[in-house]
UniProtKB/TrEMBL annotation:
Its cofactor is FAD. Transmembrane segments: none annotated. This is Dihydrolipoyl dehydrogenase. Residues 349-453 form the Pyridine nucleotide-disulphide oxidoreductase dimerisation domain. Residues 7-326 form the FAD/NAD(P)-binding domain. Pfam families: Pyr_redox_2, Pyr_redox_dim. Keywords: FAD, Flavoprotein. It comes from the Bacteria.
């Protein structure tokens, strides 16, 4: 048995783990980076990058089918070659993963340790059956895994998660997508536009994480135009068959249905990867879900020199948040036992469907109606949106009723990925609605819709903030 001593051990070499390792090394302390699986971040290997490649192919097919409204006519039926689509997805995915592998290979080989880690105590780890590591502080950055409800666990190779989709060599004939969250909506719509027969099922009214009921209504109206989507459905049974899965379900307000799908794509959520770590061997405290109790501001596991970074802490499963977590956890590990709370960036989330979805800052269900004004704009008749035939959806912005400070926004509509950034920057700078309106708005652009919503909110602010007057 090999024995290694280090100042800080990082378990997991994804986005958070790599960020933590770099931060520790920059401080001058010794660090071991332990990885039990293949190198390559969730984003590059099975997440945001390959999904956007699939979405890009789907958008190309969709645009090719909908040129006639512009007076541009494509002769014949649009042909989607599933093998060619998936070949590009895998090829470009591997290219992105290659960049991550190059970064890891640039780390000192003496700092890299392969094998699954488990805790023996607060400061001791067993890695595989070959190495025992002693570290005065430990950072857990083991990520998360898809949740599989019991009803679906007997489906064998007919049950897939997003990790599996990007290894397909060709597109299937049909897929049942369970869970209309971010992953389910993105992949479900993309597969449908590529010619796959898709059914999306959920258990709650929401799709893509939207909380504002008016924004949700506009999103559902747009999605129902092209997708077989049942966000509130009761699944009665699932049965594996020779060439697929037979599913019996009842949509809300509809009749009982039965259908067979080649695959079931499970997208109901992800669970932190704790089970194999044997944290019971530490002095960690656990909640009623058997997860370690930790401080969300410092990322320290209560009563231990252990820190949680990235998706494993279940806070914001986004790449930039994971990178921040890695840095925050590492800085606190470096200075342990002196730890401090870190200021986070403005919350922001984007769903790359069509229409795109986004939210920034406070969600609708986090607002006090008595202290909040809401401005909105529909994109049905917004100039630029109509020009490009993306005139669907709604944007709602929230502001403090008295000060006019911008609090947050939710949206379904065109260019939401770009508006989300403008609004996140405004939120982080604590701007008022009037200060935002004093910024330039070009013509004709989607951002003019944002100006309309801001003006709507500004007209409802009860006090006149001491901000610059709004130009025309």
């Amino acid at each position: 048995m090999k024995h290694l001593n280090t100042d800080i051990a990082v378990i997991g070499a994804g986005t958070a783990g790599m960020s933590a390792y770099r931060t520790v090394k920059a401080s001058g302390l010794a660090c071991l980076l332990i990885e039990g699986g293949p190198y390559g971040t969730t984003c590059a290997r099975v997440g945001c990058m390959p999904s956007k490649l699939l979405i890009a192919a789907a958008e190309a097919a969709h645009h090719a089918r909908h040129t006639a409204e512009f007076g541009v006519h494509v002769q014949g039926e649009v042909q989607v070659n599933g093998r060619e689509v998936m070949s590009r997805v895998r090829r470009e995915r591997d290219r992105f993963v290659g960049f991550v592998l190059e970064a890891v290979q640039g780390f000192d080989p003496a700092d890299r340790l392969q094998g699954s880690a488990r805790f023996l105590s607060n400061t001791e780890l067993q890695v595989g059956n070959h190495t025992r590591v002693t570290a005065s502080r430990i950072i857990i950055a083991t990520g998360s895994s898809p949740v599989i409800p019991p009803m679906y666990q007997g489906l064998g190779d007919r049950l897939v998660v997003n990790d599996d989709v990007f290894n397909w060599e060709k597109l299937p004939e049909s897929v049942l997508v369970v869970g209309p969250g971010v992953i389910g909506m993105e992949l479900g719509q993309a597969l449908s536009r590529l010619g796959v027969r898709v059914q999306l099922l959920g258990r709650s009214p929401s799709v893509g994480g939207i909380a504002d009921p008016r924004v949700l209504e506009s999103a559902l109206a747009a999605f129902h135009d092209e997708l077989d989507l049942a966000p509130c459905a009761e699944v009665h049974s699932v049965e594996k068959q020779t060439h697929g899965v037979r599913v019996c379900f009842t949509p809300e307000g509809g009749a009982r249905r039965e259908a067979t799908y080649e695959y079931v794509l499970m997208a109901v959520g992800r669970s932190p990867n704790f089970d194999a770590l044997e944290l019971a061997n530490t002095s960690a405290h656990f909640n009623d879900q058997n997860k370690p109790v930790f401080d969300t501001d410092t990322l320290q596991v209560k009563n231990t020199p252990i820190f949680l970074a990235g998706d494993v802490n279940g806070q914001m499963p986004l790449l930039h948040e994971a990178a921040d977590d890695g840095r925050f956890a590492a800085l606190n590990a470096v200075h342990y036992p002196q730890v401090e709370a870190f200021k986070r960036r403005a919350p922001v989330s984007v769903v790359f469907t069509d229409p795109q979805l986004m939210w920034v800052g406070r969600r609708f269900n986090q607002l006090d109606p008595a202290e909040t004004v809401v401005g909105e704009v529909s994109f049905a008749n917004q100039g630029r949106a109509r020009v490009i035939l993306k005139n669907k959806g709604l944007l709602r912005v929230y502001a403090d009723r008295c000060s006019g400070q911008f609090l947050g926004a939710e949206m379904a509509g065109p260019a939401a990925e770009h508006l989300a950034h403008l609004l996140a920057w405004s939120h982080q700078q604590k701007l008022t609605i009037r200060q935002m309106l004093a910024m330039p708005f070009y013509h004709p652009v989607i951002e003019e819709g944002l100006r309309t919503a801001l003006r709507d909110a500004d007209g409802q602010v009860c006090c006149d903030p001491a901000d610059p007057s709004v130009g025309g």
